User: What shape does this take?
Amino acid sequence: MLVLLPAAAIAYKYALAGTPEASPNYKMSDHWWGMLIDIPKCIGCGNCVRACATENDVPDGHFRTWVERYHVTDDNLTTPEVISPNGGKDVFPVAQEDAGKYFFVPKMCNHCADSPCTQVCPVGATFVSPDGVVLVDQKYCLGCAYCVQACPYGCRYIHPEKEVADKCTLCYHRITQGLTTACCESCPTGARQLVDLKDPKDPIHAFLKTHNVQVLKPQMATGSKTFYNELDGSVR
Amino acid sequence: MSYFRDAGHLFRFAGLFVLAFLLFMGLRHFAVPKTFGQYGHYRAAAIGDIAAHPAKFAGHDACETCHSDVAEKKSHGKHAHVNCEACHGAQYQKLAVSAQPKPGLYQAFLIRIGKALPPDPPILRHADDPSTVTPVLPDTSVLCARCHTASAAKPKGFPQVVPADHSGGMPCESCHQPHSPAIGSDTSAGGAK
Assistant: This one.
């Protein structure tokens, strides 16, 4: 008991100070975060987009995550029709049965291990954290938008009020507390799963071996950690 | 000592270099944030700043701590894997501007000149104190339709209906209880006590 008391006191001190990264319960070196998106499960309800906007105060007209609907027909195999009304926040129009195929693709920051966006930052305001999350230090960011141009997935934007780069943090404030991300929490079909690649018990390891999993733009060698199950070849 | 007889100008020059170096180190000490470079070419303290953002979605575990009756009902139905906040949303509200803690004078000055960002406004959550935020019952006609409106774009195995044909304008919950939607599985919606 006497041994445990100081540990509890330290934990309480950190909890009060609001510095979960230094919390004894969360060790950055034990995690390597990513995301699994199961395309056949996505119904395009837009819950993830709304939840993300609520959780992270994302301004209207900007998106940390969004949902695209693809419509591939024989005539446009490589240039499919893609719609995303208000990022998927608004309900998708009802699609009529035809010869083509439809599917939804939720998009977000790919939390690349070799991210092009962090490499171009002139001041060191964006970085890959030791647990594999691409973050922006908004106190340090100049708002030059090099990173916005460098991201091959279009996942960054300049915050209209703060005038600094803003992007998906993989709900870093949640995952460091043992919660899942807001988008995963609110996905009704389990199409999104937060994964920890350093956790040997995470089901992602078995999933990657047994499913057709791909990342976006693999030719860019970004080391993307957002994995898509059953990704169609027409997705850009 | 005759060795250094004509070297005075060199010492003065070296002294200038040392002074400039010390000045540079001094300026650098104040200009570079303390934790810059701890993990890489960035400010390590930024990780803590980002992690301190308040979470609005409490997570289904927090809900089920009190609403275990609903969790039990839900676990037998088709919506077993739909988390509470997928339908009910995040139950939080921001503190009124007057009740928010004011930044100190220096901090306010920094925010004013754009050298610091205003802090995240503190929030009240139903999960922390149920008396602060009263959840509003969601409108099923919007909520159910969002997922279950028939569309060729949705996966084939997902249950879908054309709402007008299916219910003729009757509200969904007159037949389906959202926590366990199969007809006849339960008659009470179940919620907060």
About this structure: Helices of chain A lie at 4-17, 47-56, 116-119, 146-150, 172-175, 182-186, 204-210. DSSP finds seven helices and eleven strands in chain A.
